[in-house]
Amino acid sequence: MLLMTGDQVREAFPVAEAHRVVAEVMRRFSAGDVVQPVRTVLGSGRDASLFAAMPCHVAGESDAGYGLKAVLHAPGNSARGLPTHVGMVVVFDPETAQPLAMINGAAVTALRTAAASAVATEALAAPGAGDLALIGAGTQARSHLLALRDIRPPRRVRLWNRGRPRAEEFVAWARAKAGLDVEVADTPADALRGADLVCTTVDTVEPVVTAADLADGVHINAVGSSVPGKRELDAAAVASCSVFVDSREGALRESSEIASPVEEGLVPEDRPLPELGEVLLGKHPGRTSPAERTLYKSLGMAAQDVASGFAVVRAARRLGIGTEVDFAC
User: Among positive and negative, which fits the CA dihedral 59, 60, 61, 66?
Assistant: First the structure.
């Protein structure tokens, strides 16, 4: 079995490859080539931590087979300068069923989540979009800036974060690692004003984005609040958008952002929720007008993790990285 650290994952799985793998697995999911139950989420009730287990099987000629992700969401890690999502991705040999690899889950999560947002941006954003607003300054904000830079080089980047020091750290990192200048905004509304691309990456119960903050024609990738009870956008903001999801079943069962406009009577219960994979397959047109607001609500899927895991292993073998251990029965 191959063991892979976060740095080794990032070496083996560059942004462009993550984009390709995630786009392909989203197509397979919406085509019915993925078996994936809604994830099991467990909370102790003693703190805000959550543990999730996500098994699946991905069919296909490559990056396919059985696997799972186990992840522990630890909100307190943000103050420690550590990833808030800690876990592992495990994939199994399609022929022998032996464990093939155990892979750093935080690195895979950051890369595949940002890749999915980049795929959504490519499919749904207006052709000339390039005024980017980032809400949050953590790991996901960084991975999103790198992923979007490669497909939609931004004309302007604004950032809002609850803590100013971390926002300033992000500015220095973006200049050094991404070659981009980032402006720090005092409020979410200041960051969002006139933006035509938005990535929200904060774990929050109280929404920080309102409908009045959003420009006509904007595309939003909402990735930070991925469990019931958490929302980055308020109900009116979501209701003002054409909403696209990774998994319709998962979104209906787990997303408070999807549920709240229905509960507040702003949209009908049977509102269409096309999957991003359906857009990629040509089953849904995606954006239909320049002024339309589009929202990609990302909850993340085991299929993204597992396909990414197989791709990471394939690249690691080629590069000769990772640590082999004997895990045979």
Answer: negative
Domain spanning 2-109+302-324, CATH architecture: 2-Layer Sandwich (3.30)
pTM comes to 0.94
Q: Domain locations in the chain?
A: 2-109+302-324, 125-297
Share of the chain above pLDDT 90, in %: 90
Sign of CA dihedral 9, 12, 14, 17: negative
3-state SS, the chain, equals CEEECHHHHHHHCCHHHHHHHHHHHHHHHHCCCEECCCCEEECCCCCCCEEEEEEEEECCCCCCEEEEEEEEECCCHHHHCCCCEEEEEEEECCCCCCEEEEEEHHHHHHHHHHHHHHHHHHHHCCCCCCEEEEECCCHHHHHHHHHHHHHCCCCEEEEECCCHHHHHHHHHHHHHHHCCCCEECCCHHHHHCCCCEEEECCCCCCCCECHHHCCCCCEEEECCCCCCCCCCECHHHHHCCEEEECCHHHHHHHCHHHHHHHHCCCCCCCCCCCEHHHHHCCCCCCCCCCCCCEEEECCCCHHHHHHHHHHHHHHHHHHCCCEECCCCC
Domain 125-297 annotated CATH 3.40.50.720:
yes
Question: pLDDT tens, 165-178?
Answer: 999 999 999 999 99
Work out the average pLDDT over 216-230. Answer: 93
Q: Check the CA dihedral 208-211-215-220 and report its sign.
A: positive
